[in-house]
Design goal:
Helices cover 19% and strands 31% of the residues. The protein has a five-stranded mixed β-sheet, with helices on one face. A two-stranded antiparallel sheet has the order 4-5. The longest helix has 22 residues. The chain is of the alpha/beta class. The protein has one helix and seven strands.
């Protein structure tokens, strides 16, 4: 696991396996700065915390990563899985932290979970 990637303390990547294909999963987890969710106080105290449910997308991506990891272990298939922690989605930084200047060699697929209204 690599923490603080792209100069953002709450961004991370965690990998498992080796070889190709290289599959990424985007785990949004908000970590929005400027929110006040500290319990037990009457005064606003800014922290970095979740805001509007993107943390559930991160949990879903983590569950998918566990499934892919189990598949790779059980089948002994070649492949690299990378889980990318995408912080601050609402602040416009989310997936954008993995833009210019930070690339993963041979990344084949990188699915992303996103809810839609029915």
């Amino acid at each position: 696991m690599e923490k603080g990637i792209c100069g953002i303390p709450t961004a991370f990547s965690a990998s498992f396996g080796s070889g190709k294909p290289v599959i990424g999963l985007l785990a949004e987890h908000d970590a929005l700065s400027g929110l006040s969710q500290k319990g037990g106080g009457l005064e606003r105290e800014e922290t970095v915390s979740g805001g509007c449910g993107h943390n559930m997308l991160g949990a879903g991506a983590f569950a998918a990563a566990l499934g892919v990891k189990a598949y790779l272990e059980q089948t002994k298939a070649p492949g690299t899985l990378i889980l990318f922690g995408c912080p601050g989605e609402e602040g416009g930084r989310g997936q954008g932290v993995y833009g210019p200047g930070w690339a993963v060699e041979d990344l084949g697929r990188c699915p992303h979970l996103a809810p839609r209204r029915l």
